[in-house]
Amino acid sequence: REKSYHTSPVVGKFFLGSRGLSSHVSERSCNENVLKEKFRELEKTLSAKLTEDITMEEEVDQESNPEPRRLDDPLSESENDLYLSYREPLRRKASLELLRTIMDSPACYIPSIVKRFVEAEEDLSHLEASKIVFILWKHHMYYKALQMSEWLQTTKQFEPTENDYASHLDLIAKVQGVDVAEKYMENVPDSFRGELLYRILLVNCVRAGNRGKSEAVFEKMRTLGFPITIYTLNQMIILYKKCDRRKIPGILSFMNKENLTPSHLTYRILINTRGETGDIIGMEKLIEDMKSHDLQPDIYFLTDLVRWYISEGLKDKAIAIFKEIGEGNSHECIRARNKLLSLYASLDMANDVSRIWNHCKSYPTMLECEAAIGAWGKLGQVEEAEAVFEMAMQKFKGLSSRLFSELLRVYALNNQISKGKEFIERMRHFRCWSGPLVWDGLVRFYVEAGDVGKAASILSKAAERQSGGAVKPLFNSYMVVMEQYANCGDVYNTEKWFHRMKQCGYTGRLRPFQILIQAYLKAKTPAYGLRERMKAENVSPNKEFSIQLSKIDALKREMLLKMSST
């Protein structure tokens, strides 16, 4: 039910008045003989008469290498809108076979595969091609989706639509970064450069944690007179939740002024912000306020609540929510089984983990396998985690890099370093044994094994690959390495990795500065110019960081006194 919204007393009290909330992708050379073999396979596929009654897209979903997109990803709200018209399944069997071939082939083959397909079929509609882009996007195959999208952009068979441009912009931002996406947007015809494109650019700027660009895009949207929707404001709340929570009240005031109704996502972000600060009372009052606006918590809200109750040691409240989930919509529970596995494991409830996994394991998804591996690892049952991994190896044609990374974490968590090293040797030749998640798993594993030098070496090589146009390492991988050096008071290496992180494009975040200042404090060495460096990146200190800055100032004064007395 739609109605105007004015900031409620709860939202006002806990946020407005609170001070506690402080393109062209580079081509790689391909083996010509292998490419010809792919074409022969494709031709056989196109000429085969397929008589199965089942939808092959379901098969493709199960066999595909990366895991499906998480349904509760808050940053996907606007992106999901972008692909709404392409969610119907592929209808033509030849198109399904094309999709399967693209999924099974290296990305560098895709332009030639599509060209050969069109020459053979002469009937690939704009809608079917766009659906293929969506399915690749859904499975995080962004590089392949971008290749397919580029074909759509360059072919003269179809007139490009606003959605085509927006989808292409989204994929460029994900594969090549927001700087390249901005340049692409400059070349989009004025008639298509509307609110949708700016909103998609904003989402990707927020995802990258780039505060400066995010704020610039938001202001540009206002200057151009585009309607500022709840979707756009949600993105700004997500941004400030990451980098400057003191700005959240201003967004809520703007929402109130514009009479905008908060969405489920708005409340979810605010509730998680409260949960992160340990403010359980404030979190529960926001839930009450949400219900007063005729918005009921869904399964993702409830699992978030359980997570925060567990983090604060409120086991009874967590179990009460579990009971509420059990009495709710069974379809929603099925969608959230991966979250439930992890949460039950956090409460050391092995019987419930076993119960849910028994429901899953006949027809598990990749996400459920990942969650089960992690859950058994938390419970110390490494053999069970290994059994899930081996089952996934048999069931899925290609494995998600998340599964490799998750099992590595299990070995590290349970101090089974030798087993982990054997696993690394076994898996290093697999097709998915690469990419940000695997690098992150390796970095964390070697850190846990006490070999920080090896972890840093892996991250360094991954960063070198990124400079050649590949996907960059995860932000958290840099944080793990920096933390290790900071804990030892190694200022030189902490600064070195801080610099490398910035070279990779991760700027405008408070966490790296928190780790950096910890290194100086541990070494009892004054740090000069930290405030200026933060200002240059548009980063504001929170209360905890301000205390650390005052300790650094005390070190400076102590150093000056020593110098003056000598």
UniProtKB/TrEMBL annotation:
GO terms for cellular component: mitochondrion. Residues 54-64 have a biased composition (Acidic residues). Keywords: Repeat. InterPro entries: PPR_rpt (IPR002885), TPR-like_helical_dom_sf (IPR011990). GO terms for molecular function: mRNA binding. It comes from the Eukaryota. Gene3D superfamilies: Tetratricopeptide repeat domain. Residues 53-76 are annotated as: Disordered. Belongs to the PPR family. P subfamily. This is Uncharacterized protein. It comes from Cajanus cajan.
